[in-house]
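Lesson 9: reading folded outputs for more than one chain in a single document. The general rule is that every protein is listed as its sequence immediately followed by its structure tokens, and records are never interleaved. Here is the first one.
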Amino acid sequence: LAEKNRVEILELLRRKGEITIRDIEQELGFTGTNAYYHLSLMIKANMVKTRNQGRTVLYSINKRHFDAVRGMLSKYAE
């Protein structure tokens, strides 16, 4: 989350719900390789999940992951 490009991708995911690599290329001006690099890191961190629709891969926020993180951090906000 400290990396600007990943925050931009997460914001796009939040606004659109599900996106493709092509959406990232068009909306954020990333190359396909750059978009895939950032998405793959976020998938490994469990922040983003994938779904196949035919030959298209759709990416979305893994809300369960962020709910768990919020739960773990909430004890420090008390």
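And here is the second record, again sequence then tokens.
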Amino acid sequence: SEALEVFTARRLLEPEIIRQVTQRARKADIKRLRQHLKDEKRARAAHDRRAIIRLSGDFHLLMAGMADNRYIDKMMNELCPLTCLIISLYDIPQTPACPEDEHDHIVDAVEAGDTQTAIARMLHHLEHIESALHLKEAPHADVDWDKILG
């Protein structure tokens, strides 16, 4: 399905994003990521589901921007909104869009300069999201993927 293809593409791209960000991240970058994590925590505390999904996607876009590769950035700017849409369509209401603290653990490894751990945590994170969704089942609404994907 198209949804599975989106996650496959992300599993290819995000390890390279992590590699680049771990090498390039300055104190200011880590500070921006930490601030973003605070925003995510606030949205969780408020149980603002739409904000949680949007901010979760924004976290991955923020990382992609820090990788400083315009082609990766462009692809992620296409994939992240699709992922948010997929989460909205297939997600079970009780399941968090991005499991709590996984973004924190990724940033901890990036800040420590531990590329392998950061990549492993990112891949685990993507697999966690994908497995929480029921992508083998029909989505909650009729979706015209051709229209959405252009």
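What the second record shows: The longest helix spans residues 2-24.
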